[in-house]
Amino acid sequence: MFGFKIISQYERGVVFRWGRALPDLREPGLTWVNPISDRLRKVNMQIIVAAIPAQQAITRDNVTLQVDAVVYYRVIDPRKAIINVQNYAYAISQVAQTSLRSVIGRSDMDHLLSERDKINAHLKDVIDAPTEGPWGIRVERVEVKDVSLPESMKRSMSRQAEAERERRARIISADGEFQASKKLAQAASIMSADPAALQLRLLQTVVEVAAEKNSTLVMPFPVELLRFFDRAAPAAAKATPMPAEDTPSPPTAPARATPPAVLTGSRPAAAALLTSLDTAPKTPVLKTPARKAPAAS
Question: Is the pLDDT of residue 271 over 50?
Answer without folding.
Answer: no
